[in-house]
Design a protein that fits this description.
By secondary structure, the chain is of the alpha+beta class. It contains 15 helices and 26 strands. Helix 8 packs across helix 11.
Length: about 525
């Protein structure tokens, strides 16, 4: 694991979601009797990642069911390079099951003999791989809302691959699949929580380990008018007008523009963020604890048909989009949306750098990340907006024990401890100065979710400080940090209005007060 910031916390950890007693929150804290001290490190984790094994990845160039050597090697090279450039500790691949289920695990974790190190269990079986940069890669899949993360082996029950979680899934089928996935060493998450066919009432009754707050692919689909990965359609004036309206905020970031390429993400987050996933998570929390995280759902396959090609079509496009010459060019030539850095909008490097999860792990690598995500000891960061510094969310019991996200504690006398973020710091992508960072407006919200839904319990507009809040009673408490990114004012070119919007920046998992 890379040298991530270390949280000096001593704790005892029990299975599942039983109460966890944790002594102290400072360096040198003493563990409770009958358990040794635990030091958490912060691991950067990407989940919901598609490689060339998935039929719809790599511009749909994947070889249907073919061996790893027959797949798009350049696309695999780009993925592996991006995992490293994004400084990820662990990546959970989630290729589609009918393309990965009959491959050996060595293929599913992309062992190609190019310097990767196989990771093996005690019996010598491949369970993952490590890239030369240190990133570890595990296998999983994405079916219809089913998303096992971190398989150690293929499920013994072949039916697990065909079970789809949706509104028609029986509880018995879900429980059988959950048992098969757990038996294969993985945790089971729900993909695309934002979609209507997986209602909150169903997720309340299912015992899945986690769900997505959000994923980028859902954002792309919204941006592209619900047409999936390929922009196209009938050439008529109303359709073209709607398309230009959807794409207009991309103008400064497309080739020919003057904005920092990675900030092309802001139009997606501003206008098309699927709120439903976050709202649904709060609905589920009203009935039971469930972990959540940010999904990349990166396919590297977004493209556009040349719908403004030809004199008649171009005239129609110009009639509604003359003010957007870069969009006109993109819709005239077709292909990928190329940005000001001459890379495509949805490159692996870009999407994996835009956002990731920070897992508080007890041990490095796949096992530690999987355990932390399953427990809910993690938070998500939209890193394109900057690094938030040593944020944290904990609870202190009346007896003085300190607990982490995903833990449960008696509400009587409990105090919630929030370390508010620093001003946004640049790391990957665009760079800005300390003076720029000082213009950012940080807004932290503490939510209390009960069966009646989420209610705002407290909010703060300070930064770089720790606050305490006496909990008013039982509930699922969670933290959300938003930022109005005026620190990016000088980087968005002619898209200046984008920095006046308040965006989600950090989403933290819940602590249950009973």
């Amino acid at each position: 694991m890379r040298t991530s910031p270390v949280l000096l916390l001593a704790a005892t950890l029990a299975c599942g979601r039983a109460r966890v007693q944790q002594s102290g929150g400072d360096a040198g804290a003493t563990a409770v009797p009958d358990a040794g001290p635990v030091t958490y490190s912060i691991a950067r984790v990407a989940l919901h990642v598609h490689s060339a094994i998935s039929h719809d990845a790599c511009d749909h160039h994947a070889t249907d069911g073919g061996p790893l050597a027959s797949l798009d090697q350049d696309c695999l090279d780009q993925l592996e390079a991006a995992l490293c450039s994004a400084k990820l500790d662990v990546a959970f691949l989630t290729d589609h099951p009918r393309f990965m289920d009959d491959k050996p695990m060595a293929d599913d974790v992309l062992l190609r003999g190019r310097g990767e190190v196989p990771l093996r269990d005690a019996d010598g079986n491949v369970v993952g791989m490590q890239l030369p940069c240190g990133t570890q890669v595990a296998a999983g899949w994405e079916g219809t809302h089913t998303m096992p993360l971190g398989l150690a082996r293929m499920p013994a029950d072949d039916n697990a691959f065909g079970t789809h979680i949706d509104a028609n899934t029986s509880l018995a089928d879900e429980q059988a699949m959950l048992a098969a996935v757990h038996g294969a060493g993985a945790i089971l998450w729900t993909a695309h929580s934002e979609e209507a066919d997986i209602p909150a009432s169903m997720l309340q009754s299912l015992k899945t380990d986690g769900m997505e707050w959000y994923n980028v692919h859902g954002n792309f689909i919204a941006l592209l008018g619900g047409q999936g990965d390929l922009v196209g359609g009938t050439i008529d004036l109303p359709h073209i007008a709607d398309l230009f309206d959807a794409l207009k905020d991309l103008e400064p970031f497309l080739q020919g523009g003057n904005g920092a390429a990675d900030l092309a993400y802001l139009p997606l987050l501003k206008a098309h963020f699927p709120e439903v996933g976050v709202q649904k998570w709060h609905q589920v929390l009203g009935a039971r604890f469930v972990a959540a995280g940010l999904g990349n759902d990166v396919h590297r396959n977004v493209s556009v048909k040349p719908i403004c090609k030809g004199a008649l079509a171009m005239a129609a496009c110009q009639a509604v989009g003359a003010a957007y010459p870069n969009i006109l060019t993109a819709l005239g030539t077709g292909g990928q949306f190329m940005l000001t850095d001459n890379e495509r909008l949805d490159s692996y490097a870009r999407v994996l750098g835009w956002l990731n999860n920070r897992a508080l792990v007890r041990q490095p690598g796949i096992d530690g990340a999987r355990e932390a995500l399953g427990h809910g000891r993690s938070y998500g960061v939209f890193a394109v907006l900057g690094e938030p510094g040593p944020v944290s969310f904990r609870a202190r019991t009346a007896a003085g024990d300190v607990l982490q996200m995903g833990d449960s504690v008696n509400a009587n006398g409990a105090t919630l401890l929030v370390r508010l973020p620093d001003l946004p710091a640049p790391e990957l992508g665009p760079q800005w100065s300390a003076a720029d960072a000082a213009r950012a407006q940080v807004h932290t919200l503490l939510w209390r979710t009960t069966a009646d839904g989420p209610q705002l319990a407290a909010e703060w507009r300070q930064n770089s400080t720790s606050v305490e809040f006496t909990a008013p009673g039982p509930g699922m408490y969670s933290v959300e940090v938003r930022v109005t990114p005026h620190h990016l004012d000088n980087l968005v070119g002619s898209g200046a209005s984008l920095t006046s919007t308040e965006y989600r920046w950090v989403l933290m998992n819940a602590i249950q007060l009973q």
